[in-house]
Design brief:
The chain is of the alpha/beta class. It contains 14 helices and 12 strands. The model has no long low-confidence stretch (mean pLDDT 97). The chain binds pyridoxal-5'-phosphate. Pyridoxal-5'-phosphate (PLP) binds next to helix 3. Belongs to the threonine aldolase family.
Amino acid sequence: MSRPVDLRSDTVTRPTPAMREAMAQAEVGDDVYGEDPSLGALEAAAAIRFGQEAALFTPSGVMANQIALQLLVSPGQELLCDADAHVVTYEGGAAAVHGGISTRTWQPAGAAIDVAAVAGMIRPDGFHAVPTAAIAVEQTHNRSGGTVIPFDTLRALRVVTEEHGVGLHCDGARIWHAHIADGVPLADYGQQFDTLSVCLSKGLGAPVGSLVISSAERIARARTIRARMGGAMRQAGVLAAAGQYALEHHVARLADDHDRAARLAAALAPSGVVDPAAVRTNIVALDLTKAPLDGPSLGAAAREQGVLVSVLGPRFGRLVTHLDVTDADLDRAIDVLLPLLTR
Ligand SMILES: *Cc1c(COP(=O)(O)O)cnc(C)c1O
């Protein structure tokens, strides 16, 4: 059978020939000695894009998030985030294990954050209480289907965190998608946060890599934390070159992924499992509560016909468009999925 249409995640992309060429040509050195020019160039370029002072390359988004959280929250302090956030759902308890960080969550509401309610959760330092040190939000919000937090909400959160003297972190694994969907400049996002993590190996199509972005002082500390976590690398310039290529060539094209996700949602809408109005970026959430198949059965049946679907719960699935999904792939996926989802 031909190559399956893989809609599980935007992490499944492979580097393009031009990206591989950039990797092959990369100048490298030992980054532990601070001598990898390609890595330094990528970190500087990323910091500038977000209007921040400095950035640090990490092998994964989880490591970037966890370094950022350790920068903002000391052991025994707490982080507030939503119960569906990647940092408390998919990171293996890393905040507690690596950072001694306590987490308290608000009810999942995707991008629709109730700023006043979040502000009400903040606890001051004091006898008995676990003091709140930071708040984390996710842009775009993964489990709610790639939804985009409105810029006004982020600004209001920034005001609240400044008033209370707590940090604000953005898990920006897909912040590029928010930038394309809402037209908010990356530098404007960058201004709202103390720390950001951004991912080069999701929608942007690099094989490896994320970045922590923050002030020069924090990034200097981040370098030590990264080394402690085993994330210091040597000639990582070959990876940085892929990331640099992705930053320069694969951000604007995300609009194509968003268009394809919208087309997919519209085509599957008659089945009643997708809400096309909720699809803002490259993720199509599948609510299978009334579908003829549950998640695992849908996943297996689609796989048999060459379409890979992400199953995230008994009655919850997800389709993700990305660099390696063509219009023909999308037609094939619709032909397979619509009958499976329709009674
Ligand atoms: C994928 C993802 C991460 C973690 O990235 P990895 O590179 O897989 O470690 C963090 N946050 C969000 C929202 C993600 O989707």
